Amino acid sequence: MALTPLNPAERDAALTLLPHWTLSEDTLAIRRTLVFGDFAQAFGFMARVALVAEKADHHPEWFNVYNRVEVRLTTHDAGGLSQRDVALAQAIDSFVD
Prior knowledge:
The model has no long low-confidence stretch (mean pLDDT 94). The chain has a 4-stranded antiparallel β-sheet with strand order 1-2-4-3, with helices on one face. Helix content is 43%, strand content 20%. The chain is built from 3 helices and 4 strands, in the order αββαββα. The protein has helices at 8-17, 39-56, 83-96; strands spanning 22-23, 30-35, 61-65, 68-73. By secondary structure, the protein is an alpha+beta fold.
């Protein structure tokens, strides 16, 4: 996938496909917070995402406390949001939606 940042029109179009994600204030990333039944479910989700992320060579910034996982996606090499982030967000959504 291209390592170029999405332009504003591409970014807005991508966000219509990702209703559970919000654009960061600096418009360089998208974020989603997920809440699971317990720590084991949250950790299992993170393990599934880790396998997909490693295969795509695109790793999320995330934070976990007990049953909550906060995910932030950006493409540092592109200097902002890219198609890689959209693809990983869609994969993440497939695990929980």
